[in-house]
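User: Run a structure prediction on this.
Assistant: Running it now.
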Amino acid sequence: LQQTHLVRLLTMAYVQARGSPHAHCVVWIKDDTKYGIDSDEEVCAFIDKYITCAIPHTEGKLKCCYNNTSIPLTAKDTNFSFPKPPSSKTLIAAPETDTDVVKDAQSVLAKVHKVLANGNSELSLDEILVKADIGLDEYTKALEVSSKGSVVVLKREPNECNINNYNGPVTLAWQANTDIQYVLNAYACVMYIASYIMKTDRA
């Protein structure tokens, strides 16, 4: 992130019990978008400008840093809903109260996940959908359904389903793993940060 893009920065840093430095930050960006006010297309374009999970393909400092800090996770290694679903574009899944719609969407996503789990992560999304016998439109509509509130679904290739969200310049500066997220719910963000500000250090 260039300094000219920053409007405000809040940082909460501490050392975890196992001795590793850890930081939670809230960043306000110039000319940002607001979910619920701006269109989803505008919000997603803003997200794509600053957040990615793409594997760097060109050699250089970012590729080297990625190789050293962004080791892909497996589902058994994390409690943070990995692997993420692949998507041809960044979109925002909206809350759905119709349980039948939610079940249908989950069924579609489960079919794709099953194909991926069988060692097909190097295939393209189109090839995976063919194996799952699901059309792209049907799959995209399933991604747009959420049972737990609004959720950002990043543009993601099948071989990037275990990659954390990052920003290139931030990764180069931080030289460690990051999890950068666009704030959809301001209240939830405030409560999350406040809980860490009030968190006590444990020996």
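Strands lie at 6-15, 21-29, 91-95, 145-146, 151-153.
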